[in-house]
Automatic annotation (TrEMBL), chain A:
Tetramer of two alpha and two beta chains. Keywords: Amino-acid biosynthesis, Aromatic amino acid biosynthesis, Lyase, Pyridoxal phosphate, Tryptophan biosynthesis. This is Tryptophan synthase beta chain. PROSITE patterns: TRP_SYNTHASE_BETA.
From TrEMBL, chain B:
Its EC number is 4.2.1.20. It comes from Pedobacter mendelii. Tetramer of two alpha and two beta chains. The active site is at E45, D56. Coiled coil: none annotated. This is Tryptophan synthase alpha chain. The gene is trpA.
Length: 393, 255
């Protein structure tokens, strides 16, 4: 439990709830109730029923043969791309919508980057008949058009965030402003392990189903629930935290988090937070973020909208600082190449976010026979335009 | 004695004005302060800009962005504020978000405030718990008031705790909203203001968010020791001659 949140809402030096008073009652209501609600037997039953019948879980753990041959290790892909709506994001939105209902909320808001969390939120709102407003950066609305159309079809209102870099960070600011202005009837479904306590913990708990299943599947397939490596891409870090969660206390399992280097870590167009960031406060928690010496948040860059975020969740900052996790980075170019490679070797088109994790295999050295699990966090349908343009397909 | 305490002992219906440092032009910070004191402001809140101001509406966001784009930093602001006490006698607070303060260093920040004659701070996203545990000592050492916000949703118990922690005034938000929404004093707001008034807090109260004209200001003064105007003022000094826009704006409140 040494990597989990303490009773004050901190992971080592990181976490807390750095929020203006206007948000305090909302966040406090959540803090006082989230564990009670989640631990309730009826809640668990409904959550797992929906996970099975609606999301399609458990997602397979697939031994990718041709990829394994290429790198000389046993590479297992945790197929979150096969979930309903095409990514891991739905695990969290199902959990939070059930929780919002228990709290008596009538209106749901969310931010989205790639649009996957927006789609996953709009989906559960349709499912449970709740009003849904999604904030999305103007730049992202343009580069993720299919997901915008899906959200609208699902009945959500998509509001463009036009401040700052017009991406995920700004969409998050707008969602927080909405919550300040609608404090009583609205629940804010944050899509990653960021935000004020208890969000990072709550989202990690809902996403931890990924590693919970993985352990069982590994035991069945390899005879051990302990792989040598676990890899995942990190923007805010929700799929990575879900993938790491039940492995954190298995100190012999190496955890590798892959950040987006953009055009290169030192290019000025990057989202590699642990390389470029410093400790500070962003979106309500103390973590590591990219900022100027004066404490202004730096606008990140990544070809993948889901990794285009200047911070990481506080629990990731803790894993990084304690050395429990290894944080590395992959460029736009490398990720696109890896996306194409996986497509042609395994017949799986990954989201460009996910392709960052695949790309890191190139940089690893295997003796042979190591077991490696990669979280295949999402499918690449939404990224076809980017792939097509890049490879002149 | 701290200038803020002195002011509340001596005056009623206090008019406090918020503006963003370095806006509309980088070197306007002191000019605006002087023009405001000259035209009758009782207290000033100078905002140090932040890239991600989640509690602010579009007007203050835009002023913050412009100020930052023009090169404003906390270092530059403290440089400018060396001139503050040449002509200004009224209390001055700095208001802004916690991350720039953390990067400057909370201890250095408090020291710099005291050196230039700033009397207090408002840092809305600095949690009460962290303030009490880690930073209160620095504020007290430099005789700075740290002002907390309360909203209609803040529980009585928490209000009493805030009242015990602070020693300047309590910033009463007229509603739970980002800055720039207009004040509608309906029954619920009146009940809330009345509830606070009856709590007999040791600190004076100032009502903020949504005060834009004489009418809303007077209404706020019925329930509190005064009121704070931000967005309406920032909007009023967008263009034109600073001294003239300030004096035109202030005339509305002094009639």
């Amino acid at each position: 439990m040494k990597y989990k949140v303490n009773e004050k809402g901190y992971y080592g030096d990181f976490g807390g709830a750095y929020i203006p008073e206007m948000l305090y009652p909302n966040v406090e209501e959540l803090r006082q109730n989230y564990l009670k609600i989640i631990d309730d037997a009826d809640f668990q039953k409904e959550f797992h029923q929906l996970m099975k019948d609606y999301v399609g879980r458990p997602s397979p753990l697939y031994l990718a043969k041709r990829l394994s041959e290429r790198y000389g290790a046993n590479i297992f892909l945790k197929r979150e791309d096969l979930n309903h709506t095409g990514a891991h994001k739905i695990n969290n939105t199902i959990g939070q919508i059930l929780l919002a209902e228990k709290l008596g909320k009538k209106r749901i808001i969310a931010e989205t980057g790639a649009g996957q969390h927006g789609v996953a939120t709009a989906t559960v709102c349709a499912l449970r008949n709740l009003e849904c407003v999604i904030y999305m950066g103007e730049v992202d609305i343009e580069r993720q058009a299919p997901n915008v159309a899906r959200m609208k079809m699902l009945g959500a209102k998509v509001v463009p965030a036009s401040s700052g870099s017009k991406t995920l960070k700004d969409a998050t600011n707008e969602a927080m402003r909405d919550w300040i202005n609608n404090p009583v009837d609205t629940h804010y479904i944050i899509g990653s392990v960021v935000g004020p306590h208890p969000y990072p913990d709550m989202v990690a708990i809902f996403q931890s189903i990924i590693s919970d299943e993985t352990k069982k599947q590994l035991l069945e397939q390899t005879g051990s629930d302990q792989p040598d490596y676990v890899l995942a891409c990190v923007g805010g870090g929700s799929n990575a935290m879900g993938m790491f969660y039940h492995f954190m206390d298995d100190e012999n399992v190496k955890l590798i988090a892959v950040e987006a280097a953009g055009k290169g870590v030192s290019s000025g167009f990057s989202a590699a937070t642990t390389f470029l960031g410093k400790e500070g406060v962003l979106h309500g928690s103390r973590s590591i973020l990219m900022q100027t010496p004066d404490g202004q948040v730096v606008e990140p860059h990544s070809v993948s909208a889901g990794l285009d975020y200047p911070g990481i969740g506080p629990q990731h900052a803790h894993l990084f600082k304690t050395g429990r996790g290894q944080y590395v980075s992959i460029t736009d170019e490398e990720s696109l190449d890896a996306g194409l490679l996986l497509t042609q070797l395994e017949g799986i088109i990954p989201a460009i976010e996910t392709a960052h994790a695949i790309a890191y295999l190139e940089k690893m050295e295997f003796k042979g026979g190591e077991n490696v699990v990669i979280c295949l966090s999402g499918r690449g349908d939404k990224d076809l335009d980017t792939y097509i343009k890049h490879f002149n397909l | 004695m701290n200038r803020i305490k002195q002011l509340f002992l001596e005056k009623k219906n206090i008019l406090s004005i918020y503006y963003t440092a370095g806006y509309p032009n980088t070197d306007d910070t002191i000019k605006i302060a002087e023009a405001l004191e000259k035209s009758g402001a009782d207290m000033l809140e100078i905002g140090f800009p932040y890239s991600d101001p989640v509690a602010d509406g579009p007007v203050i966001q835009a002023s913050s962005k412009q100020s930052l784009d023009q090169g404003m930093t906390l270092n530059l602001l403290f440089e400018q504020l060396k001139e503050l006490r040449k002509n200004i006698r009224i209390p001055v607070l700095l208001m802004g978000y916690v991350n720039p303060v953390l990067q400057f260093g909370v201890e250095n920040f408090c020291k710099a405030c005291a050196e230039v004659g700033v009397d207090g701070c408002i840092v809305p996203d600095l949690p009460m718990v962290e303030y009490e545990e880690f930073y209160k000592g620095y504020f007290e050492e430099h005789n700075l008031s740290n002002v907390f916000l309360i909203t209609p949703q803040t529980a009585d118990e928490r209000i009493h705790k805030i009242d015990g922690l602070t020693n300047g005034f309590i910033y009463l938000l007229s509603s739970s909203a980002t800055t720039g929404k207009s004040l509608e004093v309906g029954n619920t707001t009146e009940t809330y203001f009345g509830r606070i008034k009856n709590m007999n807090l040791k600190n004076p109260t100032m009502i903020g968010f949504g005060i834009s004209d004489k009418q809303t200001f007077d209404k706020a003064c019925v329930y509190a020791n005064g009121a704070i105007i931000g967005t309406a003022f920032v909007k009023a000094i967008e263009n034109g001659n600073i001294e003239e826009s300030v004096s035109d704006f202030m005339k509305k409140f002094k009639s």
